[in-house]
Amino acid sequence: MKSLIFSLIMVLAGFSALAQSSDETQNVYKNVADNLLVNDSKLVIGGYGEAHFNQPLDGSVRNNGKLDVHRIVMLFGYNFNEKTQFVTELEFEHVSEVYVEQAFLQYKINNALNFRGGLMLVPMGIINEYHEPTTFNGVERPLIDNVITPTTWREIGFGITGNILPASLKYQAYVLTGFNGYDGSAKITGKDGFRKGRQKGAESYISAPNLTGKIEYYGIRGLNLGLSGYFGNTQSTLYNGLDKDNDAAMARADSSVVGLSMVGLDARYSIKGLQLTGQLYYAGISNSDQYNKFTAASNGKLNDVGSAMIGYYVEAGYNVLRSVNTELGLVPFVRYEFFDTHQSVEKSISKNLAYEKTAITTGLTLALTKGAVVKTDLQFLKNAATNTYTTTFNAGIGVMF
Hints:
Layout: H1 2-19, H2 32-37, E1 43-57, E2 66-79, E3 84-93, E4 97-110, E5 113-121, H3 144-147, E6 154-164, E7 169-176, E8 180-182, E9 210-217, E10 223-233, E11 235-236, H4 247-254, E12 259-271, E13 274-286, H5 288-294, H6 296-299, E14 308-318, E15 329-344, E16 356-369, E17 372-383, E18 390-400
Parallel strand pairs: 8-11
Antiparallel strand pairs: 1-2, 1-18, 2-3, 3-4, 4-5, 5-6, 6-7, 7-9, 9-10, 10-12, 12-13, 13-14, 14-15, 15-16, 16-17, 17-18
């Protein structure tokens, strides 16, 4: 495992070495919300959407495929004046589910300093902020961005963001509410990681503030390097109305939370049709032993949250139509991915090998024009318990405007 992590770090460092000789333009990425914020119109509209087909492949068993309008999203921005802006993102998932994905107010001092507050995306890694279907290869988002950083991960809070142009640095720093760890039942598990703990701004509560931040460096042409972090505790309803002098009740409430220290490294590099991407997450989890034992009553069995999670991927693609005079783009790609939500565990539980997974995804991304793609891929997934691959064929369309 250590050799694999070292290899990934060396790949990320290699991106930097390759980029030194690149003559491409600087690589500053924007999602739909970013595009709305730089628009001078009073009312601005944007959006994205995707529809998917997923077909499990098994030589001995017949499986039905799944067709799904996975998400249709509309964004609205309003410029009160040149300094005060509001952005909201409304998402329809699977046709019938409705969510507010972002809703924040921003006050701009200058390029280097903006105040922001409301429902915001947690700036961890790449996909949680840049999850529009035209911004990544593959029909489905990377697996590590489903469990460890549970895209789309957003919480309510406030903070600052800016772009320090002389240093080629973009930064974000926020104070947010954290994951719902316990509200009568355990929300954090070994199988699902942190995904079921997202509060999403829906009548969310806070028992302890959490801190998150990210720095992106784009001073080397063609290269974007990111360092992100998230630190704090999960939230618990047991603190509500608690007598501060009641030590027994306080100890019980303390057993219903886990501490989270998550760091992420990412790199994106593009030169003359070549696209390289790498990402690494490591999450240390404290108090997991007490949390597992305390929440056993609500789960009916001992919970199985580990004391550390890890996940990473490396991906390479190439636009084979780069030298052709056309607005079409065709990118064959391959991505290798690994994650383990039981990277380490306390003595009270056993490591579950089914939570250690490897995925190889290879396919094609056809860009019809800027903002419209057709995708197809094959994904081979195995866990360490069975050590055999299952295969899924995926296809889909995606738009962003």
